Amino acid sequence: MTKLPELLAPAGTLDAFKTAILYGADAIYAGLPGFSMRARAKITADQVRAGIELAHAAGRKVYLAFNLFAHERDFENMPRVADMIKYLKPDALIISDPGVMMWVRENFPDMPIHISTQANICSAASVKFWQAAGARLCVLAREVSHPEFRQIREKCPDVGLEIFVHGAMCMSYSGRCLLSNFITGRPANRGACAQLCRWKYDVILREHESGIEMPIEEDDRGAYIMNARDLCLMPRLREVIESRPDSLKIEGRNRSEYYVGAVVHAYRAALDAYARNPAAFDPAPYMAELERLETRGYTTAFFDGPAGPDAHNYETGRSVSQYHAAGVVTATDAEKITLELRNEIKCGDTINFIIPHSDANISVKLERIINAANGECLPKMSAGQRNSLIIPREWFNGVSDALVPYVLAYAHK
């Protein structure tokens, strides 16, 4: 029987930690506050520690991203970093800079080291280099094809290999694009990318003598010339599993807890279905679940080799999904549940719930919008300011006792 790889989920907030644990992630990665590729993440050190304690209590691991490319000023802060690592007690550090790796080896000799995708590892030779330097696991570049991965796995049987299976793609080599740095002063390789590749562009021909600006007409592909679709390897998950990666990584430390929980739920269910009966495994039901998420459309990117035209969405940078996050269950009792909203909900909308470790379909049509703050009935309610509504359990046609705090809900737009 093929051993299942670890399912690794992102967490940029404490709520994302909680939903990743609830929906079945084997491990979670988060940023070392102020020192990772998601420098703008809002999670605090105390929240990361709380997330790590929750994960450890549930038997899950947590890896901390310390994968910036360090300048001299960063090394001046290393005593503070050392204190942070001792306080948080992660299961591994994710790094990309050789100098940072040397510092970790000297100051935390027993700390497992994972090499970040930022190191752009594309060959067995690079894997062996980092393994010889002390790495326990290498995260391969998104640009590595599946045939290349199989070769690397064959040549590197005794070191952990991790691949991305889901999440945003970079139109350049991951983290090496200079558009953001050049135009906005926000460097991609220090976690502050402004994602200028998602913007709509007009190409202007300027005639300097007359001062006339002449817009060049767009072709039938529109103007989103650099807008990469999101990576999704669910349709090829059988091939992924059978090539024996050690870890499957979901991108998204800046994503909502809804996104994290929904993606983890889909991949957890798919992996478990494969384990139960590999010969009968069908990714279609789990792909349908992922299609409900707000994304730019999906691509298998470099899985089969160089990315083709389907790797970009030339028409729009907006979501192609017909659904959006409705909210998150924050409290329950025998008579009702409380749903904190993430988008506007109207009377008559149907709310669908994603049940942890289950394919059960629990939904409810909202006969009334009941404001949790004062019991007032409204025609609609907007998200924001922790606005919540109450759903009486008597409205459910099916079993609703699976609805516990941090269960996610979605609705048709």
Account of the protein in words:
- By secondary structure, this protein is an alpha/beta fold.
- It has 2 domains: 6-173 and 227-311, Aldolase class I (TIM Barrel), CATH 3.20.20; 323-412, Translation factors (Elongation Factor Tu (Ef-tu), domain 3, Beta Barrel).
- It has 11 helices and 22 strands.
- The strands form 4 sheets. It has an 8-stranded parallel β-barrel with strand order 1-2-3-4-5-6-7-11, surrounded by 5 helices.
- β1 (6-10), α1 (14-22) and β2 (27-31) form a beta-alpha-beta unit.
- The relative contact order is 0.12.
The total domain count is 2
Rough outline: globular
Helix content: 25-40%
In round numbers, the mean pLDDT is 87
Tell me the span between the first and last alpha carbons.
42 Å
Broad structural category: alpha/beta
